[in-house]
Each structure stands twice: as C-alpha cells, then as structure tokens.
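Researcher: First entry.
Model:
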Amino acid sequence: METEANTIYQDMFAPVLKLAKSKEPADQHILATLEAATTYIRSQNGKLVPAAFFGLLMNHLETGMDSKTQTPESTSSTLYLLTRVFPKLAPSVIANKLSLIAEVLFKVHNRYYADPHQALLKSHLICIEQVLLSLKGTPAIAQREALKLFESAMSFVTDQRAKVRKQSHQAVETVLKEAGTPGKKALTELAATLCRGLLKKELDAPKNSEYSTLLQLLGLIKRILPMFSVKTTTDVCEALFAASRNQDPLVTTYCLDCFQGLFASPAEGEAEATPLPAAFLRQLISSLFEMRPNASDVNPMLSYVKTMSAAAIQLHRVDPAASGSTLPGFFTSLFSNFASDSDEVASATATALKDIIAECVDETMIAAAVAAPTVIKSKRAAAADSTTPLQQIIATLETGLLLTYKGSWQYVLDVQATLAQVSSRPAHHWAVQRGPVDTIILPRSPSQCDRSAHGPPQPKRAAPCASPTQSSAPWTLSNPIVSTMDPPKRSAPWTLSNPIVSTMDPPKRSAPWTLS
C-alpha cells in the first residue's frame, strides 16, 4: 500500500518535482509548500493520497483567506498544488464538498481580482475549470454554486492581463464543451446572458480607436456560439447585430466571423454540433443580407463573402428545399463585388460562388430547370414566379459580361464554367433517359468554339479557338460550351440601362437588423 501511495504521489506531483532544479523564487515556494504538506501528512500517519492533500491544502487556503495574513506567493503556491490534486479526486468527493470549495474560491476571487500576480489568478481559474469538469454529466453542475464558479471564470474574459484573459477563455470554452447534457443548458444560458451584458457594456463605453476589449470578447463568442441552443443563439445574434452597427470595419469583421463560426462545419476530430433549424437559418440569413458592408471595406467584405457562402451551404444541408428558393438571393447579394476595385474581393467572391454552386446546385434544382417551359434570354422575359431558382441564377450570371464587371471577367467566367460543369452531367443523363428536353440557355461565355451539338460534356475547359466562331447549336444544360475569349457581339447588346438581374434581391427593411 505504501508503494502504491508513493506511485500516486509521484504521478500527481511529477511536474512539481521537476522544479527542484529551478532557481525561480516562485518555483522554490511551490516546492517548499509541497514539502511542508507532505511532512505534515506523514507526521499524522496519513497516506500520500489525493484526498489527504485536498483536505490539507483547502484548509490552509481557507485559513489564510479568513486571517488575511497569507501572502500572495503562499496563496499562489497553494492554488497551483490544488490544480494537481483536483483531477485526481473522485467526482463524488468534489460534489459533496462543492459548497465549501466554492466558498473558498470566491474568497480568493474577491481578494485577488485586481492583483498583479497573474500566476495566482491563472491557477485560480484552472482550479475552477477542474472543479466544474469533475462535475460534468452530473446534476451538481447545474447547482447554484457551480454556476457562480462559472460566472467567476467569465468575469475575466475581457481582462487586460493577457495570461489571465487567455486562461479565462480556455476555462469557459472547455467547460461549455465538456459540460454534458444535465448542466449544459444552464451553463450556456448563463454564458449567453453574460456575453450580452458584456457586449452592451462595451458598446456603451466611450469609443476608442482600438476596441481591444470588445474584440477580445467577440473572439470568445465566435468559439462558444455554436454550443448554444437556438434561443440563446438568437439572443446573442441580436447583440452581435447591434455591435456591428457601430460602423467600425474591424468590429464588423469580428461580428461576421462570429456568424461564420456558427455556420462552419466542425473541425476534424470535433463532435458534430446540433444543426440549427431551417426557419432560424432563413431569418438569420435575411438579416445578414441587410448587414452587407461597403465593398470598399476590404476586410469586412471578405468576411461577409465567407460568411454568406457558409450560410448557403449550411442551409442546404439542413433543408435543401428551402435552400433552393433562397439561393438566388446569395448570388444577387454577392455579384456586385465583381465591380469592386479590389482583386482580392473579386477572387474571394468567385471562390464563394463556386463553392455554393458545387454544394447547393443539386439534381432536383437542375431537373426543375430542365422541365420548366421558359427559356431565359438576354432580357428579363419572365416574372420571378415563372422561373426556377437555377434560371434566376443563370440570369444573374449573364450580367457578369456587362462592361461594369470588365475588370473581373476572368472570375465571372470561372463561376460560369463551374455552373456549366455542375449542371451538364446530370442533364446529359436525363436527356438520354427522357429524350428531348427543354432548352435552357446557360450564361454566354465571351467566345464560342465549334463542338458537336450532342457530344458528351468534357471534364476540362475547351481550348480557345484561333478566332471566334458562331456555334450552330444552342448552349444547353446537356451541351455546355465554355471559353475564355472576348465577348461576342450580340444583336441586343446588354446595356447598363437595361441590365439583366436576378429576381431574388435581398429584402429591404426599414427596421434594425434583428432576427424578429
């Protein structure tokens, strides 16, 4: 038994024992505290087990807080040793002593909240994290004392001391991720309430040029927002829309990053989050349409493009039917970016639209367009209710060859080529199975190369011809023609006074950006 206790002791305090060669005063103080605790336990014929160190160290910490004679160095050493003890204790021990543990840790919080000793507060936050993690999956994590400990950890998320703030973010994020079903709802609701309060406090504070505290808070919200329920997510999103209205490009960029994290797929190795309902996603997307930043603000626009692409793909995964009717609005909202002076914005927009096409233009959408009696021409020939979403997307893409977008023709053609490739494969299959199909003219490329009117679609883009020639066959979903030459002359030129636009423009709203 003595050998087993020594093994536990060596394992529990292995990082501490390695400090023996250190000459740092703080490290020497930790070693001295451990040696004193070990000597006392042995003098009482006790075993060097986690429970013995837990009782002794907590008693020492409580006595020091009550007498107010304990130095910050002594408190820091005791807290550091407790960070080694808590993970080794049985969850039942911590659950039974939760009220006493919380009481002592609250005293530490109140006494040292503004103390310059960052190591002390860092160990304090680690202790809170470990106590809450030991309660995961149990009803105790939703008790008042546990929630107050979590609130104590969140009070440091905007702290100006970098090490303390970083440890607070880690503690909050880890506890929310690992909390488990019984306590996660209570913790996320508390986190959402605190985040909204902190956001309001920062927005009401006098404006400064850095917004450092607000940006630090938004960085945390981006990581924890996907863990929230629909109700708490709605509340936080309202606060994010309010924050984005302060007209600062950097704040807007961070707010958009938060929404992007909400739509993004989990990283490799992470658990799949519960998808948000389609109705909520549509409401959120509608509000994001109105949040569109100025194209001249490059960083906010880049974030907006990525966010809208992720939103379209997420909505399609949750509800493909709803995605189809909403999809043209994404193209309308993003397409004007091709008139931007920033090549980076145009390139990012092309990438986003290609991703949307690849993920969201499915066989159902293509089949509806193939079966539709209407043919999209160079002019707006049909009302919105008489065309399919894919036809509306095609109409929007056709406008890309207007002189307005001349500087981005290479990106427009790339998007058109992606749509042709995605659309042609299933359409060719249906043409063989069903016979003749209605013609849907795809976006006109600048040049046409002679190809067989009924040959199978090629996997690669056709090489440019020596000179532009007029194709004898129409450009159909079953026979796409893609080229990269200059635009041909047309009998009915596309003019700025008679543009071809999609019928799914983002809705205009006079009310503030809200989800309600």
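Researcher: Second entry.
Model:
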Amino acid sequence: SKATVSVLNWDSREHKSYIVAALLRRVVWQGPVRRLSAIGAAHYRFSFASSAPQAPRAFLQFRTMGTKGSKAGGDASAAGADTGVLNIYGYEGCSFHMRAMARANDVASQSGGRLSVETQTWPRPEFKEWVAGESQKHDVKHGSSPFVTLNGKYLGGCDDTLAWLDSAVAEWKAGAKLIDDDEPETHNYDYDMIVVGGGSGGMALSKAAATLLTPNGDVDPKVCCLDFVKPSPPGSTWGFGGTCVNVGCIPKKLFHTAAITRDTIMHAPKYGAPEEVTKAGETVWETVRGNIQQHIKKLNFGAVAEVRSGNVKYKNALGELKDAHTVECTNKKGKKETITARRIVLAMGGRPAYPDIPGAREYGVTSDDIFSLEKAPGKTVVVGASYIALECAGFLTGLGYDTTVLMRSIPLRGFDQEMANIITDFMEAEGTHFKKGVTPTEVKKDEAGKLHVVLSNGESIECDTVLFAMGRVPDAKINLEAAGVKTHPKSGKIVVDSVERTSTPNIYAIGDIIHEGLELTPVAIQTGRLLAKRLYGGGSQLMSQEMVPTTVFTPLEYGCVGPSEEDAIKQYGESNIEIYHTKFTPLEWTVADKPANVCYLKLITSKKENEKVIAFHILSPNAGEILQGVSVAIRAGATKAHFDDTVGIHPTIAELFTDLKVTKSSGVSADQGGC
C-alpha cells in the first residue's frame, strides 16, 4: 500500500522519521516498527518485528510540501518521478563508488529517460575535504565515499543508493501498465496493429500478434506490416527481412565461412591433400557473392510467404505517422495510401553512419553495400574498429584482399578489452594492417579510378574500396512528432519504458530503434514475441537485457555473456571477483601448424556469492556454438563448482571450461600443454 503524506515545517530528519513511524504504527499496519532508515528526502525503508503481519519489509512513498523557511523540498527523489538526476561523488579508485556507479548506469539505461547519472571524483584527500563541507551543507553526518544526491538532495552512500535503485526499478515496473487498456477492444480502425518495419523484430512481432488475434486465420488480417528499403548512397537495396537477413548477420556469417574455408584449403596439404589445392588462385568474388545473394533471395521469398500465410497483411511501402493511429504509406511508385490502427509498433532499425568529410558518400560504401558489390573489393580501407568493421576486415583479408583498418582509439568499444586486443593482434598476424590513432579527413578519386584516403596525420592511402563501419544511426525520420513520440536528444533513438511503450500510450517500439537497447537480432525477436503475448495473450513477461550472449565473427571468433572484466571490477570490486582463465590450441590447429596458445577463455566469478559465474568470455573457432550452451547455465545461476562437476567431452574446446584451475590473481601462466 502507498500513502501520500504532507509534512510542513519540520526541523530535522529525526522529526520526519518520527512522523513516518507514527503513521506506520497507527494507519498502515498498526504493528511495531523495529527499524526505520531514511533513503533520501522522500523515501523511507523500514522493517517490522516478527509479530508484524506477513510481509517483513515494505516501502512507503510520501510527498514533502515545503513552505517558506522550511527544509522541505519537492518530490525530487520519488522513485517513480518522471525525471531525476543522480549525482555520485567519490574518491578515485573507491570500489564502493564504482559499484554504485555501475548499478546506477545500468538502471538509468532501463529507465526510459526517467533517470540520468552524473559523477565526479577527486583524489582521496581532496574528496575528504569536499565531503566534509557538503555534509554540513546538507545537514548530515557523512564522511565516506560515495556521497550521493538525487535532484540535489542528499540520498546517502553506496548501500542507500543501491537500495534506492532497487526500489525505483520495482516501482517503475509495478507502476507500468503492461498494456494500453485505455484503448477499446472494439474499434473502427483498419487494423488492430500496424508494424512499421519488416526486420527480425517486426516480423516476429507481426506473426506472433496475428496468431493470437486470428488463431484460425479465417478472417481479414488484423495486423499490417510495412517494410521499405531506402537506397544507400551507392544505390544498394534489398528484399524483405531487414538488416540481419540482407546486409547483416546472414551474409556476414557466410562471407566469414568463405574465408575460413579458404584458410582450411591453404592448410589442407598438412592433412594429406595435394599441394595443387593451395594454388587454385584468388577467390572468385563473383561466385561467392552470387551464391550468397542467391541464398538471401530465397530467405526474402520465404519471409514474405511466411507472414502472409500467418495472416499478416504485408505492404512494401514506406510508413509515415500522421497521428497516434494513422500511418501514410508510400509505395515504390510513389502512390500514397492512409491506414489506421488501434496500436502502432515502430521497428525501423538503423542504417550505417557516414563521416562528415568530403568524398565519403560519393566514393565510400558501408555494410549496406559490401556484401553485394558487383566487382571484387580489391585493396580495401576499413574505417572504424567496431565489431562490424573487424568482422568485415577479417573476411576480406581471409579472402585474399589487402585490407587496412583505421582505428581511431580502441577496438570493440564496450567489449572486454583484453579479448579485443587479442583479436586485433591475431588479425594483424594473419595479414590485416592496422593504422591506430588516425581518422580519415577526405576521400578522393583519381583519373585512373583509384581512391585515396587522406588521413588526419597527413598520410594518404591508395585503395580500391573504402568501407565505413563507424556505427549506426536510427532510421527514425517518419514524422514521429505528429504522433507525440519522443526521441533521445543525443542518440536520436526512441525512448521507451520497461514495457516498450513510447511517450504515446498506444505506440510501442522494439529493436535497434530504441534508446539504450541492445542492437542484436535475437533481442529484437524475443522482445517482439513477448510484446505480442502481453498485448494479446495475457502475458506479463518483460524483456530482460541482462546476461544476453553474443558472438563477434572475427577470424578468431569471440563469444561472451555477462560483463567485461573491466565492468565486473567496477560492479563488484576487484577484490570480490576471481577470474579463471586459460590459453589453448584447438586440436584441429596442431597438425596444420597454426599458432599455439592464441585462443583464450576466462570465467569470472563472484567470491561473495559462492563463486557464482557472472561472465564467460572465449576466443576460439566456433565460439558462438560453445557459448550458447554455457549461457543457459550462467543465466540459471551456475557456480564454478557446477562447471567443475561437469564431465567434459574429449577432445573438444568446450571441455576446457570444466577444468579451469589457474586464476589471474595467482600470476601463474595460463598457457595450456598436453592434449
């Protein structure tokens, strides 16, 4: 239960606590309060004596209404407030400060714009001096790190902050309506749902919603799915299915496979194949590109057939919002049509970003184009060090093309940096060139048709293809303002709450288009299916973005689930985690005389939770296949003991995580020997 309490003209925190305690005794539970502690200016956590009825812990929210001369503030620190700024102050290297920051940033990413986090650190002596004055200013006794305020009002230290964040998340979820039930079930709209975007998430949602709305498929479609591909600057377009099928996961994995196949052929004589197989010449680009594109066209055809057979109305048209229930559709011939729906779901995804430099759009390509190039890319410059950049650079090198990566700062930002650096070292050893600390300033084309990439250090690289892989931008220019849908001012992506609802109650958003969402195909698919179940199947499950496994298909594949080592240290504290690791050589590489002990895996555990496994990272062939099974165990709460008790399958790579003994903290070499 909740109560709204107005307290005027108090003199101290003790006064407030007294009033709240009295209310709890007489109004709410009429039972003894054993302990009550303030959490900020407007929240109190309390526990009851054993004689209290049922729930041992509860939470009371009240609003303070200040008067002239009083210390009362507004509702700034209410957990359910629409907006809030959490300021976390501390000294450099403080594990409690880092833990509070890590949790706060995680909660902020799920808050749908309700919460933002700011931080400031000093050397320890300066912080001690600062916190003494700040404590006096807030009329509190607080000398430790962190010192946390919410909307300018004192909140507490690390434990207080973690408790408040937990309560905020709980209140947001409890207060969020799972569906927009203000919308009447009976209506005169053309459809019950319009899905704008036919990528992985949009398709999954459309099919799931149609199945629930028209289980027998014998009535007019109640779900309409719009999909339209705007040509890339070089003019590339593709069929139905979105980024993953056409210009993402599918062609990327197939080109990666082509490069692995070529590498296998080059080492085949070690396994008895005739030397002639290694002298077959360069990769025939037209063949590999043609076969992969033919497979994609089959997927396009199958996707259209699948949604139509699932009683979804498919329109190859560009959608633009006119109001909260109306979408204007424009087909490839320019013909316009207006349709309406009770609900609208936005699933437009994103497109590759171009740098704002001369010649970029005129002469450069992106992942929208590289997989369908009519001619072989030849000597290629890849701009960026994201996973898309390194994946593309990896298969281009593997197919025999001279490839240079321009890396402005670090590789694979957001991923474990130890793993990222092993990847780039391996790629460099395999023939990919890296130029670090530089950016392109211009792309020029000479009379012979060669491209020249001018760099920030004054150098110039001659090449045949320039591939920009510098991140993606939301494909959100569909007149969102007309329907009142808000976007994040920095990312430009759509802001949603914990149930994927936008600022307009009957409009939802899923996939890469949402702010702070994970840009992964399986996440979009799962989110779409769960949303359909909540809207039309009575479901209540929300999409969790925690412990989501993913794999980067670089030449040495990288699979991971859970935080990076850097984030684990920030979240748990370095002294509270144990890292088990090993370097190894796959058995298949030994006869081929491939490099020894370049593959690597590590298991990160929480000491305070009986060595619960909180993260798994692996660099090896077939990393994704290994990771998928491991991630199930980790999501289920497996400990290091569970891994140790599992019998390994010999001889495999995966058996290694059942026999990890070397810890990083021991300083013992992680190199593997034997079989």
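Model: Note on the second entry: The chain has a mean pLDDT of 86.
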